[in-house]
Design goal:
The structure holds 2 protein chains of 2 kinds.
Chain A (H helix, E strand, L loop, with lengths): L1 H61 L3 H37 L2 H36 L3 H68 L8 E12 L2 E12 L3 E5 L6 H8 L7 E7 L5 E3 L13 E3 L12 H8 L8 H6 L2 H20 L15 H13 L5 E5 L7 H17 L3 E5 L3 H7 L2 E6 L2 E6 L1 H5 L2 H8 L3
Parallel strand pairs in A: 3-8, 3-9, 6-7, 7-8
Antiparallel strand pairs in A: 1-2, 1-4, 4-5, 9-10
Chain B lengths: L10 H10 L4 H19 L4 H26 L7 H19 L3 H25 L2 H21 L1 H4 L5 E2 L4 E2 L2 E2 L2 H23 L2 H11 L1 H6 L4 H27 L1 E2 L6 H14 L4 H18 L4 H5 L3 H16 L4 H28 L3
Helix pairs in contact in B: 2-3, 2-8, 3-8, 3-11, 3-12, 3-13, 4-5, 4-6, 4-11, 5-11, 8-11, 9-11, 12-13
Classes of the chains: A alpha/beta, B mainly alpha.
Chain lengths: ~475, ~350
């Protein structure tokens, strides 16, 4: 009786999940649409401004003082002319050098003479041209009286352009706002309908939940109950039990080979536990018996993990890596992907916007289009953290997040983990060797050795615990 | 204050940049090339034998594109491609030649058979990986070839199966018109594979190749995507076989041997297993060089198999120096040519004006 009941609740919960995901997707799609419209308006305005620039420039030229006119129009021309003459001179010099190598004494004199003559004529020509250009200044440069008038005209024109820009912007926005409002209203209708459905489902879900007896207390998110893991004759974890509370940072410590990573692999079902139970409370307050799930279904319940050695996809850019992290949230199937249907493209744009938001939150946006190969290890660890956030997790499991990082990077990591816990409202469960990090970060610490629990408590309690000290520093 | 007045706008370059950066630009370019070859053949500039070589090459590119998803994306090796192509050819032969049904029904039948075969191999791939999987698929292919040889009731045995001209949509078509069928098939395949590569499905396949544990932790089902890539590649191989039958109208069992499977593998590896242009290039190298270039050189005309040496040497060189495939060579070449151009420019300058 009870078992069918739980099955029914889980089924309803997964239905609710689907609907909620759709609602989240639709609401963020509205934002994406708005952003797209903003970008379009900006583009149009910029194109218009580019057209106006030429017009403004003509006015601006008339306002220039003599020095400025010289600097902007005369000097560049003169520079160009003198540059060409310089090159001519250098070419002459080079040819003379080549000829001198072959020539005898009498020829040398003649050559030198003609060269000197040529250089002299070149210089004369250059000076003539330069002075010719200089004359332009008196002809074209505006006079003082004309300048004042021009200045007024210029400021008037500028004002006019900015006013027009404002008007144009408003008209563009109006133009887009109409279609945007239409779309928004349509999407809102869909959302409302979905919300109604969700309400009905959540009511039945609630009533079903009340009928069940609770295995977990209200504030516990994960419970290990007598966990046992054997590899052949080797007992990696034996009879391990502890609770992880909602919203805290929980640390699991122990000497090398204590079985910490094995515990993680058991929770995420990479290993099937030999004995014992792992209970988990999802965001709908269903109690889930994790042992019954397959590896790739664990993430759908809201549990994400990172790896001890960075396990990024080396052949994909950082942004695409984050999108892989969002794989479990995609609602479109293979045929949508095959034909790139509109629904898929929309979903992709929504998820890309989300990935960029996560990257900006963790200060990683500049690495968006990089490939992981060649980036510093600290950055890769952060990218892996960012990837876990893409699947809307409840519980993030970090396997030695500070391994291989220097002190500066570790400090930054502590900040990041705090930020994630606060901003995304997740529970964090980590294994770490760096005692400084664990003591600073964790609310509760569990120490294990050879697969057995030694102690559990606050950092202070663990630090003063005799058994833990013995395990770390050796007996006596 | 004043901005630089001298604006250099080169309109054609901008236009070209916009067009050439479109994701489907290459597909339309290849469509143009394929149709041009046929039209030049019609006029008489390109001899019919060369057009035939190109037509067969388009078929192998279709098959190679399916193989990229398998090898370059999901990271699974298969040596059973030839047998599957053979299945496609015999399905069309039997359906049109013996049963006398329409081409459309033959097509559906072929795809159903491909999906069944792909599912079988896909399930095998869950247990076995790498070299062993290649050997198992090779065995499957050899079994299929034996079936072609000795199930004489259906396949007409060792002499092969020839069919008469067949109708498409009620009209009897000539060989020149079947060419356009190949073109349509290749273009659609290119679109499909490009779309898959640039979608969560393609990314999921790549992550399975890179790290199975990371893929599983991100919620990617290994079973689903391995099956999917095997089914896609099998369907494309069978479609290739069907198009082969449609174009040549004859098939013999000995054609679908391991050499063909190895050639397709070589084409994908040489060209670059991750890019559809790489695969196209590799196919042209492996299947085209032989018949278009070497056949015209007297030495290779007398010693026909000597071109295999060239193919082998090419594979060794590419695998040693360009693991990413020939397609990588293009970016390297463009970088090098820019460098050379600069150095030559400075040399000329130094000669004329002396050193700075």
């Amino acid at each position: 009786m009870d078992k069918t009941n739980t099955k029914k609740t889980l089924r309803i919960a997964s239905k609710m999940d689907k609907i909620e995901k759709k609602i989240a997707y639709l609401t963020s799609y509205i934002d994406v649409l708005k952003h797209q419209d903003e970008v379009k308006v900006e583009k149009k305005i910029n194109a218009w401004l580019d057209d106006q620039k030429e017009n403004l420039l003509a006015y601006e030229v008339r306002t220039l003082s003599k020095e400025d006119y010289h600097q902007n129009f005369i000097q560049p021309k003169q520079d160009e002319v003198s540059k060409t003459y310089d090159l001519k001179e250098r070419a002459l010099r080079q040819s003379l050098k080549r000829k001198l190598d072959k020539a005898d004494a009498t020829q040398k004199e003649v050559l030198q003479k003609t060269f000197d003559e040529n250089i002299a004529t070149l210089h004369a020509e250059l000076n003539e041209k330069l002075s010719e250009i200089e004359k332009e200044l008196s002809v074209h440069a505006p006079s003082e009286s004309a300048r004042k008038e021009a200045l007024k005209q210029y400021s008037d024109e500028k004002k006019k352009v900015s006013q027009e820009q404002q008007l144009l912007k408003e008209s563009f926005e109006k133009e887009y706002a109409l279609s945007f409002e239409n779309q928004k209203a349509r999407i809102q209708k869909q959302i409302d309908a979905l919300k109604l459905k969700l309400d009905v489902l959540s009511k039945t879900h609630k009533s079903l939940l009340e009928q069940q007896e609770n295995v977990l207390p209200d504030d516990v998110i994960l419970r290990l109950d007598g966990l046992m893991m054997q590899f052949g004759g080797l007992v990696a974890v034996s009879n391990l039990s502890f609770d992880v509370k909602q919203g805290e940072i929980f640390g699991l410590i122990g000497p090398n080979g204590a079985g910490k990573t094995t515990v993680f692999n058991c929770i995420t079902q990479f290993y099937k536990p030999t004995d014992g139970h792992i209970y988990y409370r999802d965001k709908r307050l269903n109690t889930i018996h994790l042992n019954d799930y397959i590896v790739h279904d664990v993430i759908k319940q809201g549990i994400v993990r990172t790896f001890q050695n960075v396990e990024l996809i080396w052949e994909l850019s950082i942004l695409d890596n984050l999108l892989v992290g969002a794989h479990s949230t995609y609602q479109t199937g293979f045929f949508h992907h095959l034909f790139h249907t509109r629904r898929f493209l929309r979903e992709e744009s929504v998820l890309k916007a989300k990935a960029i938001k996560v990257l900006t939150d963790l200060n990683l946006l500049q690495y968006k289009d990089f490939y992981p190969l060649g980036l510093p290890y600290g950055i890769l660890k952060q990218v892996e953290l960012a990837r876990t956030l893409m699947s809307e997790p409840q519980l993030i499991i970090l396997d030695e997040p500070a391994a291989g990082l220097n002190d500066l990077e570790t400090d930054r990591l502590i900040e990041t983990i705090r930020k994630i816990q606060y901003d995304y409202k997740v529970t964090i469960f980590l294994v770490e060797h760096d005692m400084g990090l664990v003591m600073e970060l964790c609310d509760t610490i569990c120490a294990i050795s050879f697969g057995k629990k030694l102690a559990i408590g606050t950092p202070k309690e663990i630090q003063s615990n005799k058994v833990v000290q013995e395990a770390y520093l050796g007996g006596e | 204050m004043l901005e630089n007045r001298t604006k250099t706008t080169f309109a054609p370059a901008l236009w070209w940049k916009k067009v050439s950066k479109h994701p489907f630009f290459g597909v339309f370019l290849s469509l143009f090339v394929m149709i041009m070859i046929r039209l030049l053949g019609d006029i008489g500039i390109v001899p019919p034998s060369v057009v035939d070589v190109f037509a067969i090459m388009w078929i192998y590119i279709i098959i190679g594109l399916g193989f990229t998803l398998l090898l370059g994306y999901t990271g699974l090796a298969s040596l059973g491609t030839a047998g599957l192509i053979g299945v496609g050819s015999y399905v069309v032969a039997y359906a049109l030649g013996t049963l006398g049904v329409s081409l459309f029904i033959a097509f559906i039948l072929g795809i159903v058979i491909a999906i069944v075969l792909g599912t079988i191999v896909g399930f095998i791939s869950l247990r076995i990986e790498g070299m062993y999987l290649a050997i198992i698929t090779l065995g499957l292919s050899e079994i299929l070839v034996e079936v072609f040889k000795f199930w004489t009731k259906v396949t007409k045995g060792l002499v092969g199966f020839q069919i008469e001209r067949f109708p498409i949509l009620g009209t009897i078509v000539r060989e020149e018109q079947v060419y356009y069928l190949l073109v349509i098939g290749l273009i659609l395949t290119m679109f499909a594979v490009l779309n898959i590569i640039n979608s969560p499905t393609g990314r999921a396949m790549l992550s399975i190749k890179n790290s199975t544990s990371a893929a599983q932790a991100m919620g990617i089902s290994i079973l689903k995507y391995r099956l999917l890539s095997f089914i896609i590649s099998t369907v494309l191989a069978v479609i290739g076989g069907m198009l082969y039958m449609a174009y040549t109208r004859s098939t013999i069992p000995n054609l679908w041997n391991i050499a063909l499977s190895l050639n397709i593998l070589a084409a994908v590896v040489i060209g670059g297993a991750k890019s559809i242009w790489g695969v196209s290039l590799g196919t042209i190298f492996i299947f085209g060089l032989n018949q278009l270039v070497f056949a015209r050189i007297p030495f290779f005309a007398t010693y026909g198999n000597a071109s295999l040496f060239i193919n082998g040497a090419l594979i060794i060189l590419v695998v040693m120096f360009y693991p990413g495939g020939i397609i990588r060579m293009f970016s390297d070449l463009s970088r090098l040519s820019k460098k050379w151009y600069q150095s030559i420019k400075t040399r000329i300058k130094e000669y004329r004006y002396g050193q700075d």
